[in-house]
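SEQUENCE AND FOLD
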Amino acid sequence: MGLLCLLASMIWGGDLAAGQLKPGTKAPAWMLKALDGKDVKSSEYRGKVVVLNFWATWCPPCVAEIPDFIELQKELGDKGLTFVGVSLDVSPAPVKKYVRRTKVNYPVVMGNQDVVNDFGNFSGIPQTYVIDKEGVIRMSHMGKIKKEALLAGVKPLL
């Protein structure tokens, strides 16, 4: 995991001393491109609990947690939960292929250095935030998150 953090830091220009935004902080607004090229805005998710997950197709811990995200989206999507994957891949091509192959059932957008900076210039991925219906970060987690830990952070907010 340390090497992965260092690699992500080198690619995205992160500072290993920097960190993710802390719970209780208002989540930054963002606008990113979906895989179809359309703009997606954070404001589209007002009133929902959002699990915002920064990941990449080349990151083994990132792809390891996605099946749980797909399952939880199926189970809790109708209760107001939405996952949003923010890919930090350089190009959308491998992301599109991965999303099709694994049948990701939630929105995936292409991230950039600006959104990484806005979310605290974290130093590694996966980086996951749970954001409540009012847009406040209630949980942040660097590294592969266990399904049980994610559920514990999400369920009280639904």
In short: The two ends are 31 Å apart (CA to CA). The chain is about 35% helix and 20% strand.
